[in-house]
UniProtKB/TrEMBL annotation:
<protein>
    <submittedName>
        <fullName>Glycolate oxidase subunit GlcE</fullName>
        <ecNumber>1.1.99.14</ecNumber>
    </submittedName>
</protein>
<keyword id="KW-0285">Flavoprotein</keyword>
<feature type="domain" description="FAD-binding PCMH-type">
    <location>
        <begin position="1"/>
        <end position="173"/>
    </location>
</feature>
<dbReference type="Pfam" id="PF01565">
    <property type="entry name" value="FAD_binding_4"/>
</dbReference>
<keyword id="KW-0274">FAD</keyword>
<dbReference type="InterPro" id="IPR006094">
    <property type="entry name" value="Oxid_FAD_bind_N"/>
</dbReference>
<dbReference type="InterPro" id="IPR036318">
    <property type="entry name" value="FAD-bd_PCMH-like_sf"/>
</dbReference>
<dbReference type="InterPro" id="IPR016169">
    <property type="entry name" value="FAD-bd_PCMH_sub2"/>
</dbReference>
<dbReference type="GO" id="GO:0019154">
    <property type="term" value="F:glycolate dehydrogenase activity"/>
</dbReference>
<dbReference type="InterPro" id="IPR016164">
    <property type="entry name" value="FAD-linked_Oxase-like_C"/>
</dbReference>
<dbReference type="InterPro" id="IPR016166">
    <property type="entry name" value="FAD-bd_PCMH"/>
</dbReference>
<keyword id="KW-0560">Oxidoreductase</keyword>
Length: 350
């Protein structure tokens, strides 16, 4: 039996009721990314009844689905057609939804080579803070004058509006995929990655953990095999990348708070207390540490990066520079003037 269901009318009614009553709404799908951002105290608006793939044409490489559709259903449909979501979005829970994927804007190990969630957004339908269901973008790549509202929704954590439908560009799965483990220390791994980054190697994931560098090679058979001969190492089960993406590795367990550090790719080693895992070829570092939030943030800011707490209560959002905050406030004012959607989730003043 199909679970597809268009619930946009009920969602629109709930938003208009909140607008009329001057109350706020906490948008949620399965809650798999609930640990991110600040807690929101408001009436829950659950997107999960609004689900189903609306259209999917593998020859056009475009999929459109409702926001409450489970990510696993979308990935299964793509897999059947030999295609994929190139940015490998993490689920972080069994029932992660498409809307949550866009709102959180998180990408997996392929991100530096394939792009982010935002890069694959073609169009959206959004219920705005004016109580209107509007369509932004389309099903083809277009340059739009002014704000590209669809792409603004990526990583907005529901603060700008309620996503009801998403159109995505998808890509064929690579013909060949091979994962390798190369024993080496962190310093050597970062140096090697910096050098390989200048060369035409078919790397699509690179992670250093413990005493080894883990690589994934993807592409045509010839390029993957010649890269394998050049790099050496031992073959690795490709499930390693799923475990990394979904934070199932032993590294992510344990009581110390988890931090995601986003840093310039060539910033070298970070001297921070705790245990580190390097992902994205050096641009993303995971840190398990009991260090004070401000000292972690200061150390990462010194190299031009920023830190996000993945453990609820570990730290609130860092303050934004005043100029950036003005942009955020102006956008919020345009799209959600009454502040009905997820107030305070991203920043206390939004």
């Amino acid at each position: 039996m199909s679970m597809d269901h268009d619930d946009s009318q009920a969602l629109l009614e709930q938003v208009n009721q909140a607008l009329n009553q001057g109350t706020a709404l906490r948008i949620q799908g399965s809650g798999s990314k609930a640990m991110l951002g600040n807690p929101v105290v408001a009436e829950v608006l659950d997107t999960r009844r609004h689900r189903g793939i609306v259209s999917y044409d593998p020859t056009e490489l475009v999929l459109t689905a409702r926001a409450g559709t489970p990510l696993r259903e979308i990935e299964a449909a793509l897999h059947q057609a030999g295609q994929m979501l190139p940015c490998e979005p993490p689920h972080l829970g069994p029932d992660a939804t498409l809307g949550g994927m866009v709102a959180a804007g998180l990408s997996g190990p392929r991100r530096p080579w394939a792009g982010s969630v935002r890069d694959y957004l073609l169009g959206t339908r959004v219920i705005t803070g004016h109580g209107k269901l509007l369509r932004f973008g389309g099903e083809v790549m277009k340059n739009v004058a002014g704000y590209d509202v669809s792409r603004l929704m990526a990583g907005s954590f529901g603060c700008l509006g309620l996503l009801t439908e998403v159109s995505l560009k998808v890509l064929p799965r690579p013909r060949q995929c091979l994962s390798l483990r190369l024993p080496m220390g962190r310093h050597e791994a970062l140096a090697e990655l910096a050098e390989w980054g200048q060369q035409p190697l078919p790397i699509s994931a690179a992670c250093h953990h413990g005493d080894a560098l883990y690589l994934r090679l993807e592409g045509g058979e010839g390029s993957v095999q010649s890269a394998r001969l050049r790099l050496g190492g031992e073959a690795l089960d490709s499930r390693f990348w799923n475990d990394l993406r979904e934070q199932r590795m032993a590294f992510f367990n344990g009581p110390a708070p988890l931090w995601r550090l986003s840093v310039p790719i060539a910033c070298g080693e970070l001297a921070l207390p705790g245990e580190q895992l390097i992902d994205w070829g050096g641009a993303q570092r995971w840190l398990k540490s009991d260090a004070e939030a401000h000292s972690i943030r200061e150390a990462v800011a010194r190299v031009g990066g920023h830190a996000t707490a993945y453990t609820p209560g570990a730290a609130s959002s860092p303050p934004l520079p005043a100029a950036l905050m003005r942009y955020h406030q102006a956008l919020k004012q345009q799209l959600d003037p009454q502040g009905v959607f997820n107030p305070g989730r991203l920043y206390p003043d939004l």
